[in-house]
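Example 9 (inverse folding). The structure is encoded as follows.
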């Protein structure tokens, strides 16, 4: 019973964190969850746990779709390039899932880790809240961010 209550409390805390997060924080949360999914998928693929790998890869694709759909290409010169990266990663993740290829999952990780680090750095800047609010993808469109 205690474990159930703890799980419910953690879920509520996660929901509150998402609802109260700034746009910059939502963006970094999306990237953090994306990388968590990718690492879980890679580990599952290497272990031959194809259902677990597929679940993680599908969730990662949902996150990339959210990042793509919320990117404001009219407000940032680099948006078209980032959109192309997202399209490439989406294709790579689909292929990684269909072909059960951990090397493709690793390729997606290697592409997304530097982007996540860059967004974390940008979010930490004093003016990040102002600039990221208007130009960057912020997510949240019903996408489950839970880290469990």
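The amino acid assigned to each position is listed next.
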């Amino acid at each position: 019973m205690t474990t159930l209550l703890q799980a419910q409390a953690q879920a509520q805390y996660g929901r509150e964190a998402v609802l109260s997060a700034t746009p910059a924080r939502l963006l970094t949360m999306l990237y953090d969850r994306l990388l968590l999914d990718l690492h879980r998928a890679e580990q599952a693929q290497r272990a031959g746990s194809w259902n677990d790998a597929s679940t993680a890869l599908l969730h990662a694709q949902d996150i990339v779709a959210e990042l793509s759909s919320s990117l404001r290409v009219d407000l940032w010169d680099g948006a078209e390039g980032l959109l192309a990266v997202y399209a490439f990663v989406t294709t790579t993740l689909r292929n990684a899932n269909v072909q059960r290829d951990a090397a493709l999952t690793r390729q997606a990780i290697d592409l997304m880790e530097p982007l996540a680090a860059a967004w974390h750095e940008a979010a930490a800047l004093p003016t990040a809240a102002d600039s990221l609010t208007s130009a960057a993808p912020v997510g949240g469109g019903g996408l489950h961010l839970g880290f469990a």
